[in-house]
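Hey, why these numbers?
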Amino acid sequence: RPRYLCIFIFVAIGITISGCGSKSLWYQESVYGIKIKYPKDWTVHERAEGLAVVAFKSPRKGQMDTFMENLNITVQDLGGRSMPLMQFTEMAVNQLRVMYSNIELLDSSQTVLANKVGHKIEYLVKAESDIKILQAWVIKGYKAYIITFSADADDYKNYIRTAWEMIDSFQINK
C-alpha cells in the first residue's frame, strides 16, 4: 500500500512540474521567421511600436502602475551586406549614447541568441523614473535581430527572469 502512495505522489509531482496548464504561449511571425515564447497574461502588439515586429507588454499591477514592462523584437536590415557582430555592437552602443545623454552602461558581453553567438547590453536611462533596459542581438545573413526588454528600474529584478525565459526561447527559422 505505501508503494502505491509513493508512485501516486511522484506522478502528481511530475504532472505539476511538467506544466499542466502552461503559463506560456508561442508567438510566431512568418515574414521574418521568428518564434518566441511569452507569458500568456502579457499582451501582444504586432507592428505597434514603431520599428518593432512585435511587442509584448506585462499586465498592470494596479491603477498606480504607470510603466508596463515590455519586451520587443526588431529586425534591422543591414543594407544587403553582412556585418561583424562587434562592429554592429559598437554602432548600437554609440547610437544609444547619442540618443540618451543620461545613459549608464551597466554590462556589455557575449551571449547566445537563437543558437548563435550574439551580444547583450544592460543600461540605465536616468529620468524622472529610471528605466533599466536589456538588449540582446544576433546577426543572421543581412539582418540584425534585436530583442529589447524595458522595465522600471525598481521592478527590473521582478521581471528579468521572465525576460530571459522569453529571450532563451527565441528562434529564427529563416
